[in-house]
# Entry
Amino acid sequence: MKNTIQFITAVLLLSFGNLAAQNYSPVDEIVVQPELRQFFSPSSSQWDIGDWDGIPLPVTLSSFTALCVGGEVKLDWGTASEINNYGFEILRTDTTEDWQIIGFVPGHGTSYSPKTYSFIDADTLCGDIRYRLKQIDNSGIYEYSSICEVFVPAITELEFELSSFTASCFEGNVRLDWETATETNIYGYDILRTDTTDEWQTIGFVSGHGTSDSGAIYSFIDTNTLCGNIKYCLKLSNQDGQFEYSSVVEVFVETATGLDELTENLQYVLNQNYPNPFNPSTIISFTLPEASHTKLTIYNAIGQEVVEVINKQMEAGNHNVNFEGSNLASGFYIYRLDTANYSKTMKMMLLR
# Structure
């Protein structure tokens, strides 16, 4: 027995001696497993579990904004550069913190120049709504953007009463006349037109009278109309961005020109630009009761001229000008209409 114990002791000492001779460290034997992270697989369109090396995705997000207009939310964002960018999932939540995927916008792959994106949430919630982006690369790795918050008011029925809406054709031009019995908080009217294709096109805008218990009378001349059976419709908007459509009126247009009868009883009018605020373009509309040399000029908030939009002879009637503010900074601007017998200025806001 004594010999057996001595033999076992000798074997153990020999084993520990060999380990010491090898400078053994338990750390040398630890195998570091890669971190497992849930990611989206573009090829299978499924959520999988895979390896992630912990390196941030090489997509630089330069901006992310949300703007509520007419009960819809428009999201805009930009990237300074992109590498291997598959796209962006759009996530939304209210105060419940229960994030919901509501859409997807494809990325530009690899790009070293700035790119811009947009998404319209036409079926949004009401109240304080938050959005964020989930950017996914072509390998399925993803990360989240910062959170963007916007307030969406509850949609209510517009308070107005349209008592008449007619269309009449004179020598190839169409005059629209409509009248309201009452108006509350009315911003204005988009003029929509279509032929037999039923593809509606916005051709102009007329400012509303705000709130009026006695209603108001409006008119609009379509000097660039189509031929045949043409339909017109009004899109009424209030100051909160909510809108609804009028009934449709139809008129037959022959190929001819002439404005004498149509321009009777027209007055000089400079309308509020639409949309306002805008980014980056907006429509400035005005009415001339007679042919005149016309200037439309944009100034900054301290009165310095920024751009001369129009400086030419123009015919009588309604006119719509698309103003592009891509090269301007955010802020208030003034636009001024000048003719021989009329001058007026109004404010507008560029909001990036």
